[in-house]
Amino acid sequence: MYWEQCALARRQANTISKLVTEEETVIEEESEILNLFKSKGVADSCKVLEGIDRMITQEDNKFLLDPFRKEEIQIALEGMGPTKAPGADGFPALFFQRYWHIVGQDVTDYCLGILNNEQDFGDFNNTDIVLIPKVPNPTQLVNFRPISLCTVVYKVSAFVPGRLITDNVLLAYEILHTINQKRTRKKGVMAVKLDMSKAYDRVEWKFLVEVMTKMGFACELVELLKRCVSTISYAVNINGMRGNLFQPSRGLRQGDPLSPFLFLICSEGLSSLMRIAKRRGLFKGTKASRQGPAISHLLFADDCILFGEASTVGAKILKDILQDYEICSGQCVNFSKSTVFFSPNTSEENKEAVSNLLGVRMATNPEKYLGLPNMVGRKKKESFQKLLDRISMRIEGWSNRMLSQGGKEVFIKSVLQAIPIFAMSCFLLPISLCKKMESIFAKFWWQKGKGRKGIHWCQWAHLCRSKSEGGLGFRNMAQFNTAMLAKQGWRLLENPTSLVARVFKAKYFPKSNFLNSQLGNRNSYVWRSTWAARGILEKWLIWKVGTGTSISTGNDAWVPDLVNSRLLSSYTSSNDSKVAELINC
């Protein structure tokens, strides 16, 4: 009886009683949802394509067109979440992973036929659409996110490895920190955060193909990607009722592993227009420091921030750019949900004029970007309070389930301790916040049931030891935070030509490298966070000697098996001498 009540409550919570349009018209026919996936036609895209350079070389195309191999199919399948929602055929990845010895050959042959021999996708490209609410108790269609449930066979054929999201967070925070400090100069700066309405669903296939061709992708690859997105059949699933199949004429599927990458290619159209305006001196963007690179926009999937001079001229140019992008790509900017943030030296008159011209509302503080705060003040614990709320909500959702201690261990490691990873990759969280997280974990670990406190038989620190040392291998959250930030510092050393590395170097260590950098004054929170982990790298990193032209004999660690890996010698040359001078001397 209890489980029946739980199932009934879940069904009632997930039931969509009605759907209405933005014009408050009740949606009664499936055809009204279908309109979202119908092409509206696009204008001539020559103006947008003008600023797109050929980026894909012959070597790149040769690599991309190499025949796919049997091993790659199995690797792609093994990289999928085993219990993620299945597609129209009802089979999750777990089925294929467990019974690969039976179905593996058939799946491999089918996928290789699609990838290498232009075989038709058939019914494996049929896709169910489910509406996931963005807000509690939604009724308007815009408050639902249409998620596509692709079949596992299609996902194997379209698998692409992951990307790094933190670069955009670091760049956005650094630029907004600089903007917020502009108080004396005459020219103000603005940051416009755009809300793209149903961005994936509005992508025009014709425009996508034109951009890929202009970028230099081989015709065979363009055709394969076009087949992936254009041979779809959708069926809308509402309240467990599957509708009729229909053919879309535009859009990318949220749930397709290819979609984020294809959307970035589509967004290259906006980047192109911004580059053209920048070359002509019409829209210059802004810098995090005087010697740093100018940045006019940051894009990650459908999240977009534009930076430029806060003036009516700049706003007019920006508006024209967005209109050109909309009519060519099919995208639609929701200006009513977009915001603009101004530097403190911008006059109130200018703020009002720019805001009205763009049709966006003014924000007193930069809004969140990619789920993380863009401005963290002295009350850091309050800025990250939502992390604690999310952890508590996850525990609340599972507290009624009779989890064993083994189940709790997996839940804490795989779910609860994974929640703050993204924030910890960018920010040094307060120690008190990390302790509070661990307190919540410990309370959940020892409790006997919902609302029933248990005895804490040992300290949490003991449980954080490895299993070989008598612990359970839980994470020490403060130490894990430092390790994640050290990874960011390592990327600054390993990829010095990346945009984020160039921005940080120009602002904080123009004449040295990250390991020899100083904290400095008027620094941002992301820099203080990354710099705080520098000691780990400084202690454990050691140079691998090649030519020795970049390694300082006295300042760099390069000799293995020494106490501090630094050379202490009576060699009379200056500390700026290089190891290359010692080779064959």
Automatic annotation (TrEMBL):
<dbReference type="GO" id="GO:0003964">
    <property type="term" value="F:RNA-directed DNA polymerase activity"/>
</dbReference>
<protein>
    <submittedName>
        <fullName>Reverse transcriptase</fullName>
    </submittedName>
</protein>
<dbReference type="Pfam" id="PF00078">
    <property type="entry name" value="RVT_1"/>
</dbReference>
<feature type="domain" description="Reverse transcriptase">
    <location>
        <begin position="113"/>
        <end position="362"/>
    </location>
</feature>
<keyword id="KW-0808">Transferase</keyword>
<dbReference type="InterPro" id="IPR000477">
    <property type="entry name" value="RT_dom"/>
</dbReference>
<keyword id="KW-0548">Nucleotidyltransferase</keyword>
<dbReference type="InterPro" id="IPR043502">
    <property type="entry name" value="DNA/RNA_pol_sf"/>
</dbReference>
<keyword id="KW-0695">RNA-directed DNA polymerase</keyword>
